[in-house]
Amino acid sequence: MSVKVSFIVPCLNHLAQTQQMFCSLKDTLPLGLSYEVIFVDDASTDGTRTWLAELAEPNIKVIFNDETVGYAKANNKALTLAQGQIIGLLNNDLVFKPNWFEPMLEILESPALRAGVVGNVQVRIADDALDHAGIEFTLRAKFEHIRQAQLKTNNTHLKTFALTGACCLIRKDTLERVDGLSEEFLNGCEDVDLCLKLVQLGLHSYVALNSTIGHHVSLTRGVDSLQNERNSSILQKKWRNVLQCALSASWYSALLGPETTVLSDHFDGEVLPEMLTSPFATSELIAENMLLRNEHQWARLLNESDLNDRSEIQILCAGLSAELDSEYLVANERVRLTLKGIKSVRNFCAYGHRVDSAEQSQCHITVMVNNLQKKIFDVTNSRSFILNIEDPLLLQDCDNNIKLSIDQTPILLGDATEGVATSPVLFTHFMLDKRFVYFPQLFTV
Fold first, then answer.
1. 270 with 372, same domain?
2. Residues 299, 314 within the same domain
3. In a domain, 231, yes or no
4. Which runs of E-coded beta strand occur in 125-166?
5. 135-137 and 143-145 beta bridge pairing
6. What residue spans of 239-331 are helical by DSSP H?
7. Does residue 118 sit within a domain?
8. More confident residue, 337 or 412
């Protein structure tokens, strides 16, 4: 009888969890299913290899790697031995529950759905909390597990942007058409990359909402490591055009939706309503800013470099005047900063000071970025102040403008007709990314 399903299980230590996974797998598969299990030991050191060598069941195959090669290479190696029409990619830290397999298979075999890969709902074994019901590409250009309680609906499946490879079903010929898992990744992003490759074939990713398993979650590899960042960087570079289109489309839908507060949820300060009048252009601008932020972050983390060329950066200022033998720049009511040579910044800071008599007047300073984003600061009770705006929305391939509007109102003393004159607001310097200090070059307009 031909093999229906080949389950591939890479292993790297954690023998007890592997044994628990294997027992629960055999106990929960439907009767009569023709299947095989291919274990790939990735150079374990804890007794896993001895246990695997002693397995004598006829439908078990074992591959022993002499050195650790990682998730993608381990699965691809097993794929060459697989005889099943369907491949089940499984982690060795799962605990299967009854009826987990059948809903996944039904979706994969439904011609109308054009399913390329099917995953399921996964709960953390430690606390039974929902850990995965698919992967979404968020408005901030991040891949995140869907963990929403409202997924408990009457639907049997959910179409998702991607899904985890911890437990999924895919046809063998489909996996071979995309040349298996991409080996430029190391223990991360292989699954998202696979889902994106399937989209190019006109196939979709689904989560079977009636299938639930337990998962120890990242038992072998850690989270938040530099390797994860490196994998994410490779993924975005490889699929940048696709991700930019998807992100722009998501922002376009968000801008047209009823909840316009989505802007304030993702940006520091206020985003001006005028941005909603051109939703397509705005969505393109926001998407590019989000992707560039990722790329600049990875350059700093992985290469210890900055994609902004310091030699090209200039801050030109209007509305500021330098006093002789003074470290301060005196501000008019309106100050305009022109930023040249800037591609992406995490934050912009302006450092200032109010003179002794400043306590006798109220003072608000509005920071406006490219007439798109603004933030208002109350510095009435401050002698020294920092104006900080996170993730300013920048234009690409042109200069960026930041305007500082200073509004001072004298505090009336005694007789309401007797006021106190306002005093100057002074600036000392400006910073980008809180790392480099830029003293402005002054010009007049």
1. no
2. no
3. no
4. 130-132, 135-137, 143-145, 157-160
5. antiparallel
6. 240-256, 262-266, 279-303
7. yes
8. 337
| All residues at 6 or more sequence positions from 241 whose CB lies less than 8 Å from its CB, including other chains | none
Per the CB < 8 A criterion, the answer to whether 96 and 201 are in contact is no
Instruction: Please count the CA atoms within 13 angstroms of the CA of 64 that sit on its side-chain side.
Output: 11
Instruction: Calculate the CA 336 to chain-centre distance.
Output: 33
425-432 and 347-354 as β-strands: parallel, antiparallel, unpaired?
A: antiparallel
What tens digit of pLDDT does each residue of 341-397 get? Answer: 898 899 999 999 888 665 668 899 999 999 999 999 999 888 899 999 999 999 988
Verify that 330 and 403 share a domain, yes or no.
yes
Q: State the Cα–Cα distance between residues 52 and 82, nearest whole angstrom.
A: 18
CATH of the domain at 204: 3.90.550.10
Distances (CA, A) of 125 to 92, 128, 380: 13, 5, 53
Name the domain count of the chain: 3
Pairing of strands 157-160, 204-215: antiparallel
Q: Is the model's pLDDT at 112 over the cut of 90? A: yes
Identify whether residues 104 and 249 lie together within a single domain: no
- Residue 267 lies in domain: 240-303
Which residue type occupies 444?
T
pTM of the model as a whole: 0.90
What's the pLDDT at 416?
53
Under 8 Å between Cβ of 257 and 354: no
Residue 234: inside a domain: no
Statement to judge: residues 246 and 349 lie in one domain: no
Calpha distance 418→261 (Å, rounded): 43
